[in-house]
Amino acid sequence: MTEEDSQQLQEEISDTEIEAAKEAAKVLPSIDSAKILRGETYTYHSPIPKAIQEDPTGEVILGVDEAGRGPVLGPMVYAVAYCLKSDNPMLREHKFDGLPFLLPPLTTKLTHAFRTHLLQTLTTPSTTLHNNLGWSTISLSPRDISSGMLRSSTSSTYNLNAQAFDATTSLITAVLASGVNVKEIYVDTVGTASTYQTRLQKLFPSANVTVCKKADSIYPIVSAASVCAKVTRDAAIGVLVPEGKEIGSGYPGDDKTKGWLKRDMDLVFGWEVSMARFSWATARDMFEGGGKNGSAKGAGVEVVWPEEGEGAGQTLTGLWGAAAGGKGPAGWYGRSVHREF
């Protein structure tokens, strides 16, 4: 496991925090429990903050970050946060400066609690954050992530990078369409920053776009987006995890997560599409077999699909009557069937 994977594991919700996430899911506006359980992708937009409404020509900064890109379980959530550029000091006052996310592993629980506290403050009317900071999220379901990545034609495969890019642009476009005067955009990325930045700059020429790794620890507005994404994903996991179940961090390298996948796997259908990403190698190899050496056998049963045209023209009575060569049930019981249905 790489150092980056270890850091991601530390940032993921732990089993002891699931109950808190379940409670948060009941009040967070970015949580739609029904859609999460159905495996649907959905978007949430907060109202335009009062400060921006009162100063519609004021320059606005916007940050983008995600949560749940790597896990085999649960949704991937992208979020944007935005405020007047003059309110940037306000973000630092509320500790949106990356520091809470760089604490040692032993304080992970406090970090999760701190994030939740910040988002709850943001969603509470009359607070400074509520009046000055706007935010949006898009929760990409495991079903939709996997269906895009597992398209039969290689040329039409909708890979994770493309899905992430589209999620980012759709959120930014929606904020701009609402009349917000966005002049600076800051994006956290795990890919090649320069390429990503060039593409976004072409799409949003009216704003100055900055893309870099670890942007949430550099730009407070990205840190704010990170909080919105992470707390929303944690709460979504709280919705998905049954009482008393332990799923671990959700990352493929986590033994608890792999244990849950093995225990909860249906031998024909795999897992709930709202929970597991079938396109991840961990899930695919466990179900279908394969692995690095290609020799491991999966636990799932093999399903054989008829080739196109196979059985064409066959009638229902052909399976039951004389056309079945005397092998159908009509040859065992009663008279042969001659009428076609």
Automatic annotation (TrEMBL):
<dbReference type="Pfam" id="PF01351">
    <property type="entry name" value="RNase_HII"/>
</dbReference>
<comment type="function">
    <text>Endonuclease that specifically degrades the RNA of RNA-DNA hybrids.</text>
</comment>
<dbReference type="GO" id="GO:0004523">
    <property type="term" value="F:RNA-DNA hybrid ribonuclease activity"/>
</dbReference>
<dbReference type="GO" id="GO:0046872">
    <property type="term" value="F:metal ion binding"/>
</dbReference>
<dbReference type="InterPro" id="IPR024567">
    <property type="entry name" value="RNase_HII/HIII_dom"/>
</dbReference>
<feature type="binding site">
    <location>
        <position position="188"/>
    </location>
    <ligand>
        <name>a divalent metal cation</name>
    </ligand>
</feature>
<dbReference type="InterPro" id="IPR036397">
    <property type="entry name" value="RNaseH_sf"/>
</dbReference>
<keyword id="KW-0255">Endonuclease</keyword>
<feature type="binding site">
    <location>
        <position position="65"/>
    </location>
    <ligand>
        <name>a divalent metal cation</name>
    </ligand>
</feature>
<dbReference type="GO" id="GO:0043137">
    <property type="term" value="P:DNA replication, removal of RNA primer"/>
</dbReference>
<dbReference type="InterPro" id="IPR023160">
    <property type="entry name" value="RNase_HII_hlx-loop-hlx_cap_dom"/>
</dbReference>
<keyword id="KW-0540">Nuclease</keyword>
<keyword id="KW-0378">Hydrolase</keyword>
<dbReference type="GO" id="GO:0003723">
    <property type="term" value="F:RNA binding"/>
</dbReference>
<dbReference type="InterPro" id="IPR004649">
    <property type="entry name" value="RNase_H2_suA"/>
</dbReference>
<protein>
    <recommendedName>
        <fullName>Ribonuclease</fullName>
        <ecNumber>3.1.26.4</ecNumber>
    </recommendedName>
</protein>
<feature type="binding site">
    <location>
        <position position="66"/>
    </location>
    <ligand>
        <name>a divalent metal cation</name>
    </ligand>
</feature>
<dbReference type="GO" id="GO:0006298">
    <property type="term" value="P:mismatch repair"/>
</dbReference>
<feature type="domain" description="RNase H type-2">
    <location>
        <begin position="59"/>
        <end position="292"/>
    </location>
</feature>
<comment type="similarity">
    <text>Belongs to the RNase HII family. Eukaryotic subfamily.</text>
</comment>
<dbReference type="InterPro" id="IPR012337">
    <property type="entry name" value="RNaseH-like_sf"/>
</dbReference>
<keyword id="KW-0479">Metal-binding</keyword>
<dbReference type="GO" id="GO:0032299">
    <property type="term" value="C:ribonuclease H2 complex"/>
</dbReference>
<dbReference type="InterPro" id="IPR001352">
    <property type="entry name" value="RNase_HII/HIII"/>
</dbReference>
